[in-house]
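Technical annex B. To support the medicinal chemistry partners, we prepared a structural model of the target in complex with glycine, based solely on the information shown next.
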Amino acid sequence: MNNKIYQERRHALAKQIYAKSGGGIAVISTATEVARNRDSEFPYRHDSDFFYLTGFEEPGATLVMEVKSSGKDYKHQAHLFCRPKDIEREIWDGIRLGPEAAPAALGVEFAYSNQELDHKLGELLADQDAVYIRLAESAEADRRLRHWMKKVRGQARAGINPPSELHDVEAFIHEMRLFKDAHEIETMRRAAAISARAHIRAMQMCKPGLHEYQLEAELLHEFRNSGAQSVAYNSIVASGANSCILHYRAGSTELRSGELCLIDAGCELDGYASDITRTFPVNGKFTGPQRALYDITLAAQEAAVAMTKPGNTFMQPHEAALKVLTQGLLDEKLLKLSELGSLENAIETSAYRRFYMHRTSHWLGMDVHDVGSYREQSDGLSKEDKPWRVLKSGMVMTIEPGLYVRPADDVDEAFWNIGIRIEDDAVIHDSGCELISRGAPVKADEIEATMKNA
Ligand code: GLY
Ligand code: MN
Ligand code: MN
């Protein structure tokens, strides 16, 4: 494990803590295991913030960062609390790193058994001015903090003072996570390449008479067979009318000739998500109305891609996509120009929302809807007045326009139950954006050719 990147991240965080409070203690715990029933657990997934700072995937661990002033600069030491070695438990649950091996493996200065956390925190918080935690993380985290503070307050007569400042450490970490380094981008490229192959596999296995869950199985096969640890989110395999349900899961609906199948699926690889959507005809050939709406959606995505570059705001790709989608809806008479008067009015009045009800982008990273503020920091401005985030090199976001037409009396029946989304993952570079998920075909003709060549 290359522990240098995690050390560097801890130092970058320590520097910000020093700048804000002149020092302090930061406490970041990983996720807890969750029981499914009796002695069965849900698959364990580490906490992304904790993993970002440690590269450590075991449950039961807490990172404590001690930041002190040393003359004009700061000094930082990392204390890791982790599960102790336990032969009996390791026979059942697997090997543990253990505190003895942790400093060499993870580059932390100190490591202890997690059973010592409460005791040590009482010591580490003594005479510190500031504590950095994730605010309102859980009742258990609040209870522990109260317990540690009580311990320190109990030493008042010995002249020891408890911290008097409480800060949210999450804001610092999330701002760091918004900008991906070369190692992260490379991992995300690999994750997206696996997911793209999974989409191709599903397209090529698709035929009328199969069920949605069978295509989900093909996706999972490609993810795991390629070494991805898990899905980044529950796969959506939505055929026919289901394609218009935004958060549909892969169900048991039979795939029928003449209908579309929308797949939104991405793997998680080495802690990083990918997020791809493709929409294709179950029988391998788009109908006229399907193709018309597909081409509009792809043109909207292309318009958004062209706006995904440094210096533009997060909203500009969305606005570009909206314009193309709304014009397409007017052209296809799904929106009536006679009623709306103009494209601008159709956008202004949100008339398009009936057919396009979500945003075009979100940050992507360790989490599928990744962390990081969507607005610039502008103290004193109300939420609505804060400018949208300016895009910069190192950010990663999805570009995912769609059109969803549900049956209605005032909608041409030829378009009923057509749900289309096209989603790619974009890494922003100085020169523009790189679509890392384009291993999956996206043009209608390419999709048809891919399915034909199965
Ligand atoms: N798969 C979740 C999303 O596209 O936002
Ligand atoms: Mn997405
Ligand atoms: Mn998606």
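Notes passed to the chemistry partners:
Residues 400 and 423 are 4 Å apart (CA to CA).
The longest strand covers residues 73-82.
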